[in-house]
Structures are given as structure tokens and as C-alpha cells.
Amino acid sequence: MILFFSVGGGEDLRRYWLDYLRKTHVLVFVVDSSDRPRLPLAKAELHRLLRAEPQLPVVVLGNKQDKAHAVSGSELHEALALHTVTADRKLFLLTSQLDSGAGRKACQDLDTFQNLLLQLL
């Protein structure tokens, strides 16, 4: 069984991230692939979390791949400087288009993601 805690990325919520991180078995860091101007901020926040918990497995989920200006998986890998993460940490980069407003399809996509996450870890 997987229990997900979704803590938003708003500036006012980021101060709580470390509290949740200490109780986490895997970090799923969701990035809006279509929001290019905010990728440097996403990179900084991700690396802050990586430093806080150096052994925690991480899945970076590049969402909104269906948007016209979304970065590709390789561009996201570069923009987030994932190549700088140590080789001994489990790190996975996945791309998706999980749309919370798509009803039943979104639930199926989330189930698929959860199953994939179990297989990866």
C-alpha cells in the first residue's frame, strides 16, 4: 500500500516540506514541464531537499508533457541538474501528463503511476 501526501509547491507551503520529508520513504517531486521560467526555482528547491535527506530515493515527475511548450525529459534532466546527483542515490525521472481534471482517465493514470512507482522502488 502506498500513502501519498501531496504538499503543494506554493512559497507559503515550502516551509513544511522538510517536516514531511523526515517521514517519507520516497520523494516524488512533481515539476510543471511547461513552466520553463520556473525551472530554476524547481531545481533549487529539489536540490535543497536532496541535501536534507541524502539517502532518500527520488522520483522526479515531469508533468504536463502534453502542453505545447513543455520541455522534454532530457531537457528537464539538464534543467534540474540531475546529472549532479550522486550515483548511490536512487533517482528516477519520469514524464507524464497527469490531468487532475480528466475524471476517470486521471484516476487510471494515477493508478498506473502508483504501480510503476512500486516496481521502481
From TrEMBL:
<dbReference type="GO" id="GO:0003924">
    <property type="term" value="F:GTPase activity"/>
</dbReference>
<dbReference type="InterPro" id="IPR053254">
    <property type="entry name" value="Arf-like_GTPase"/>
</dbReference>
<dbReference type="InterPro" id="IPR006689">
    <property type="entry name" value="Small_GTPase_ARF/SAR"/>
</dbReference>
<dbReference type="GO" id="GO:0005525">
    <property type="term" value="F:GTP binding"/>
</dbReference>
<feature type="binding site">
    <location>
        <begin position="63"/>
        <end position="66"/>
    </location>
    <ligand>
        <name>GTP</name>
    </ligand>
</feature>
<feature type="binding site">
    <location>
        <position position="9"/>
    </location>
    <ligand>
        <name>GTP</name>
    </ligand>
</feature>
<protein>
    <submittedName>
        <fullName>ADP-ribosylation factor-like 10</fullName>
    </submittedName>
</protein>
<keyword id="KW-0547">Nucleotide-binding</keyword>
<keyword id="KW-0342">GTP-binding</keyword>
<dbReference type="Pfam" id="PF00025">
    <property type="entry name" value="Arf"/>
</dbReference>
<dbReference type="InterPro" id="IPR027417">
    <property type="entry name" value="P-loop_NTPase"/>
</dbReference>
